[in-house]
Design goal:
Immunity protein, Rce1/LyrA-like_dom, mainly alpha, membrane, transmembrane, 402 residues, endopeptidase activity, single chain
Length: 402
């Protein structure tokens, strides 16, 4: 089915209009601070406005040559998501401190968060043709989007939708739809099932058993206790952990989806494209967890990253084998929510170097890797190849230099 082409002129206009608004906001804050006698803060506002001005000027110049286009795109990718997030954060925090109707302001800024990065996604990231450039751009872009969680909002309730990262995850999903379309992919998170029902049952069964073992086993003083004795303590789910689990499922699987698109386009002719898509996307998923370094020890973070990379193989297989992105999201949500419910909330990882730590880490890495190796052979790999072909059917991919 032929895709409707996007109206790029409207998106270009929207991007420039948004950039101009950001510039005016920073100038407005500078004038406000001057009126309050805060010349130093006003100077910082003027200095900060230089960055969106630079983006605006380069965007106007990009029509002159391909080199200007490449420079303008990368400048927008590197600067605008951060500029938009900082501007959004400062305005939201300051307005919230001076109004009574805080709920209304929260809703307004939540809606702004959903759409403010869409022009950057279409105009800049959507223009990229080089697979490595796409890979770097989407990972950076998505991580900056998630920075909205740093804002502190009290009380909880609807505010958790922002502080948990859930709104940022939805924004990432919306951006992914547009980016995929700009890369000439048909956004279809639910491809027609064409694999073996028996294999699918085994895969789902493994996922359920693995999730149970990962959350209820792995503790004890002997090898037998660690491997076979579950600790069935009462679950302690919370509204915050529920939202965080949805955020993880939507955000991280959307990021994986874009990563896989970049890889299958870049290695479309390679006989190892399935392995490349699975392994590289899993490595990127593992590296993503090093952002937790600020809140936990290096050893715990390293252990978490290695486990995430191994589990990332399963998430990627679940999407590439079934063609159903929602299934990977659902499983990711389930395993994270179970983890939060068992631990009584979202808590930092701990690594003590005990026998149970080493054994559980070994199992949590070895088992997903073994399943991945099995899935990357025979008819199972063929099904994933066919799903990749289905994705590439509507794609006019070309390996370029932008």
């Amino acid at each position: 089915m032929k895709q409707r082409k996007m109206n790029l002129k409207k998106w270009d206009f929207g991007f420039r209009y948004e950039t101009a608004i950001v510039i005016l906001v920073w100038w407005g804050m500078a004038i406000f601070n001057i009126s309050k006698g805060k010349s130093a803060t006003a100077g910082l506002c003027i200095a900060a406005s230089v960055l969106p001005v630079l983006v605006f000027v380069f965007d106007l110049l990009k029509r002159h040559s391909d080199k200007w286009t490449v420079a303008a795109n990368w400048l927008a990718i590197v600067l605008m998501p951060a500029i938009l997030s900082i501007t959004w954060y400062i305005l939201f925090r300051n307005i919230l401190q001076h109004v009574i109707f805080k709920m209304f302001i929260t809703i307004v800024f939540s809606l702004i968060l959903l759409v403010m990065d869409l022009p950057v996604a279409v105009v800049a990231i959507g223009q990229l043709r080089n697979w490595l450039g796409r890979l770097i751009a989407v990972c950076y872009f998505n991580m900056v989007l998630l920075s909205s969680t740093v804002i502190e909002l009290k009380p909880q309730g609807i505010n958790v939708l922002i502080t948990s990262g859930l709104m940022a995850a939805i924004a990432t999903f919306l951006a992914a739809i547009l980016i995929a379309k700009r890369w000439s992919f048909s956004f279809n998170p639910d491809l027609k099932w064409q694999g073996s029902n028996v294999t699918l049952i085994w895969l789902v069964l493994f996922c359920l058993i693995f999730a149970f073992w990962a959350e209820f086993c792995g503790q004890g003083n002997s090898l037998g206790e660690i491997l076979l004795k579950p600790d069935l303590a009462p679950l302690k789910p919370t509204w915050v952990s529920f939202c965080r689990a949805i955020e993880a499922g939507v955000f991280e699987e959307t990021n994986r989806y874009l990563t896989i698109l970049a890889l299958i386009a870049g290695f479309a002719y390679s006989r190892y494209r399935v392995q490349i898509a699975l392994i590289v996307s899993a490595i990127f998923f593992g590296l993503l967890h090093f952002t937790n370094l600020g809140g936990q020890a290096f050893a715990a973070t390293l252990n978490q990253a290695v486990y995430a990379a191994a589990l990332g193989l399963v998430f990627a297989i679940m999407y590439l084998y079934t063609g159903k992105l929602w299934l990977a999201m659902l499983y990711h949500f389930g395993i994270d929510f179970l983890n939060y419910a068992v631990n009584g909330g979202v808590k930092a990882q701990v690594w003590s170097g005990t026998l149970s730590d080493w054994v559980s880490s070994f199992v949590l890495v070895l088992v997903p890797v073994a399943i991945a190796v099995w899935m990357m052979t025979g008819k199972r790999k063929q099904v994933m190849d066919e799903n990749i072909d289905e994705k590439l059917k509507t794609n006019e991919w070309q390996i370029g230099l932008s």
